[in-house]
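Here we describe the complex-level prediction in full. Unlike the single-chain runs in Section 2.1, the two entities below were treated as one system.
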Amino acid sequence: GEDVEQSLFLSVREGDSSVINCTYTDSSSTYLYWYKQEPGAGLQLLTYIFSNMDMKQDQRLTVLLNKKDKHLSLRIADTQTGDSAIYFCAESDTGRRALTFGSGTRLQVQP
Amino acid sequence: GAVVSQHPSRVICKSGTSVKIECRSLDFQATTMFWYRQFPKQSLMLMATSNEGSKATYEQGVEKDKFLINHASLTLSTLTVTSAHPEDSSFYICSADRGRDTEAFFGQGTRLTVV
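The structure predicted for the assembly as a whole is:
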C-alpha cells in the first residue's frame, strides 16, 4: 500500500527558513498536499501541488517536488512563532480521493 | 464556500455506551465523505469511505459493526461508535469531497474520550 514518511521534529529560530521533508512510495500519486494542525484543532490546508509540477510558491510557502525520487518538501520563509504546529504531507490519486497522510512533523519555532 | 461542520467537537462518554458524530457539508453536496482517526501523537488514518445511499467501504482492520457509518443524504454523514471502550478514545475527523475539486474539505474534528 501507499506509504508516506516524514521526519518527526524540526526546531528553528524565528526569522529563519524551515524546510520540512516528505517521501512517498505510491507512483500513482497525483496530488500532494501540505496540512497544518495546531494543538487540539483540525486540519488546515496550506498548499498542494500536482504531480506534473516541480515547484509551487505561495507567499512564504514554497513546495518542491522531485517526482523521480518521490520527495516533497515544504519551505517556510521567515518562520514565525505562529508557525509552530504539526505539518502533515499527504497524497492521493485521482481515483481514490482519500488521503494517505505522513506521520507529521512537529515544527518548533524558538523566539 | 465548501465548509464542513463536524459535531460535537468534544465528547466524553462512559464505557459501553454509543456515541454519534455528525459531519455536514454546509454549502455543497458531498458525493463522498471520508472518516479518519488520529491517535495521540500519531498520524491520521483513513477508517472508511462513504458514498451517499450506499454502504461504506471500511479500511482493513476497522470493525464495521463497531463504527457504523450512515450517509443518508448528500450533506450528512454520521459515524456511530458503538459500545465504546477507552481504547476508542481518539480524534475523529471527517472530510467531504464534491467530486470536482483538487482538495477534500475537512471538518474541525471530534475529540472522543471514553471513561
